[in-house]
Specification:
5% helix, mainly beta, globular, single chain, six-stranded mixed beta sheet, 123 residues, 1 helix
Length: 123
């Protein structure tokens, strides 16, 4: 069983910044990729960004150029630096990951969705 603990959310004004952290622990033998996802009220969960163990990154179109994902493989931790935040970035942010490239292709996550961390962008 894999535990995922997200932190770093909060209330920020438009144009502000936040840094999210997520640590994975438990029965993890290997991690191919980890990523951040978000879900706004009334909307489906969507990919924000993900990063492979080799450092290859992928971003959702709405956050390109504003968000940066990074990862500490030794700590099984993934970070999300969010700059130039806008009200439409308001959502609960979750992290999760994949144990292999095959699981990545199948969208089979290794962890259960936790409570996430709330990000609210408002003046």
């Amino acid at each position: 069983q894999v535990q995922l603990v997200e932190s770093g959310g909060g209330l920020v004004q438009p144009g502000g910044s936040l840094r999210l952290s997520c640590a994975a622990s438990g029965s993890i033998f290997s991690i191919y990729a980890m990523g951040w996802y978000r879900q706004a009220p009334g909307k489906q969960r969507e990919l924000v960004a993900d990063i492979t163990s080799g450092g290859k990154t992928h971003y959702g179109d709405s956050v390109k150029g504003r968000f940066t994902i990074s990862r500490d493989n030794a700590k099984n931790t993934v970070y999300l630096q969010m700059n130039s935040l806008q009200p439409e970035d308001t959502a609960v942010y979750y992290c999760n990951g994949y144990t292999s490239f095959l699981e990545y292709l199948r969208s089979t996550f290794f962890g259960s969705w936790g409570q996430g961390t709330q990000v609210t962008v408002s003046s």
